[in-house]
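Could you join me in thinking about how sequence relates to backbone shape in a protein? Label the sequence line and the structure token line clearly, so we can match residues to local backbone shapes. Once you have written the record down, we can walk along the chain together.
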Amino acid sequence: MTLHRILNRSLWYFRLRKIPSPALLTSIWFVAVAVLFLQAPGQAADKFKPFKLKTLDGTAKTLQDYAGKATLVSFFFPSCPYCNAAFPEVQKLHDRHKDQGLVAVWINVVPDENKKIPDWLEKNQFTIPVLIGASQASLQRDYKLKMTPTHYLLNPQGEILFTHAGYEKGDEVELEQVVQKALDIAP
């Protein structure tokens, strides 16, 4: 969730509760802005934990196999309704930007659904590669997964540029913007 959304929801919360202090709201806003802009400029970005998983045909793959100018790693499972709502947009995003250096890979988090993936890919005409082979518990622990889909956008060094969990209509707009920025494409 973006800071803008958090602040807007906080403001609505205060309005609905009829908390009358505009000075308090202004103070909260300034603190939030200060936290964003006053962080140490040399602070290192979080690194994405490298993985070694398998394709559907059993070929071993690592994060390095998917390194691009920007890499979008998405965690999902085939029967997830939010994934099924989000992934057509993610596929379109990938198709639009793959020639500029965007690489995408999807990782299934529910091993019991591995057998569903080939039909699911064909039915939805998805072409983004899918990886399997890790336990649900290890994926949740290693990548701090709370819900699906969860997207991580990485730079070529494997540093996390953006992360987003869940889906609601319109999330694809924000994802498009961060991908364009990572690829240095003017909107």
Observations:
- The radius of gyration is 19 Å.
- Residues 6-18, 24-44 have pLDDT under 50 and may be disordered.
